[in-house]
Amino acid sequence: MSRDRAPWPSRRLFPLLATVVMTALGMAGAMWGPRYYGKTAWALPDDLWGTLIAAQRLAHLDLAGLYTWPTQLVSLPGTAAILVPAAVVIDVTGLRLSIPSAHGAYPAVWLFAGPYQVAISAVALFAADAIAERLGATRPKRFWLAAAGATALWSVTIRWGHPEDAVATGLLMYAILDLANSRTGRSAWLAGAAVAVQPLVLLAFPLLAVAVEPRRLAGYLARAATPAALLLAGAAAANWTATVHAVASQPNSPLVDHPTPWLSLYPRIAGNQIAAGPARILAIVVACGCALVVARRWRAARTLRPVGPRDRRMLADLLWWTAVTLALRSAFEPVMVSYYLWPPLAVALAAAAADWPRLLPTGCVAVVLTFFSQISWRNPWSWWTPMVAGLAIALFFARVRPGAAPAPQMLPEPGEQLAAGGAP
User: Fold this and answer.
1) Domain total for the chain?
2) What is the pLDDT of residue 403?
3) Nearest-CA neighbor of 231 among 197, 266, 274, 187?
């Protein structure tokens, strides 16, 4: 059976196995791991529960409560929307949903919510594997990609409970893959869904705008803006004050999370919190500068040979620059959490998937950085500096080297698949 006609479970075997192993080990570590440290309560992700409560309110059509205590939601409503199925099951089963405390150290809802958030977060692993297949990566490389990707994903899911970062990054990678396969319309909807789930991916939009054909750019941006605009408009209409405050200022606490050297430059708001929103605007401005650099590089390449989004080297280059723009969040944030490092690492791994000299060291750096970032150093320089340096090293290893030969053709192009009767 040819590779493109193989059943889906066979084609995506490695991310499937990685998801199962990550779920089993993650749940075991969260429930039984604390016993080795003399603790009695389960080691649960603190941030998941507020988002689950927001999802429960969304399922009950309580839009006015999305951004009110205790949800602590600062992202777009799509963050809660992806957890609505879990909230519905929790309601149907009669499980009690609340913020874990000393009186609820073993919440039964975790037995369902934990595996569910890992399952939806695994979209990033499947997207990376699909990209690796498109780039012509061999199965051993795809195995290492899944293993390193799942290990790094632990920080996002089991440790911190932010499946929205993984879902958005996975949708973004699928959007880039669809762009490479000349499916511009579907790419736009996927990119828009990614923004609705986690607006972090807006950092990649200047690059997407460069990659889209100019005559299709207006339609692409209109489609991509629709999901987030509709969800945000509904929440704002129900509770304007709470929605605007949360989404515009995006408060973060330097007393709870890691302060960075940028801390003193950003405004403080109520409760000793920092408004992180302005930092993210600065990162978008720098991302636009990256897009200009990429546009000049691609224009220069076109003077030598015809290239386009379907060119494999161009796809790898677009992925690498996407990882660079996603890393800008960590470069400019006034307050950071360790899972902020994951999105650029995930995309950098996908960009390097076809080449062992790039993939192996990038994966090693991603795994080391994932666990090293859990250290709770409070000094702004001592924690932030090695984290940003680690990101830079990972990006250095994953970069597309000038003059590198493209990977050998292993899959037919999308038009050839359709002509042969294969699935698009």
Assistant:
1) 1
2) 58
3) 197
- Cα angle 182-404-399, degrees, rounded to a multiple of 5: 80
Rounded Cα distance between 49 and 44, Å, is 9
Q: What is the pLDDT of residues 16-38, one digit of tens each?
A: 999 999 999 999 999 998 888 78
Instruction: Note the pLDDT tens digit of each residue in 80-92.
Output: 999 999 999 999 9
Strand order in the sheet with 251-252: 251-252, 273-275, 268-269
**Cα atoms found within 13 Å of the Cα of residue 5, Cβ hemisphere only:** 9
The amino acid sitting at 69 is W
Tokens representing residue 247 in the block: 């989404």
Q: What does each C-alpha distance from 392 to 12, 94, 131, 395 come to in angstroms?
A: 30, 47, 22, 5
Q: What is the pLDDT of residue 424?
A: 36
Tell whether 407 is covered by a domain: no
Distance of alpha carbon 118 from alpha carbon 20, whole angstroms: 9
Structural domain for 254, as ranges? 8-99+107-401
Written as one string, the DSSP assignment of 191-245 is: HHHHHHH-GGGGGGHHHHHHHS-HHHHHHHHHHHHHHHHHHHHHHHHH-HHHHHI
Domain annotation covers residue 420 = no
Q: Mind listing the pLDDT tens digit for each residue in 277-316?
A: 777 888 999 999 999 999 988 877 654 333 344 478 889 9
Asked if 110 contacts 32 with a C-beta cutoff of 8 angstroms, the reply is: no
Tokens 């302060």, located at residue? 259
State yes or no: pLDDT of 242 exceeds 60.
Answer: yes
Q: Is residue 394 part of a domain?
A: yes
Task: Give the whole-angstrom CA distance, residue 162 versus residue 170.
Answer: 13
Average pLDDT over residues 142-158: 97
Residue 17 lies in a domain: yes
98 or 137, which is more confident = 137
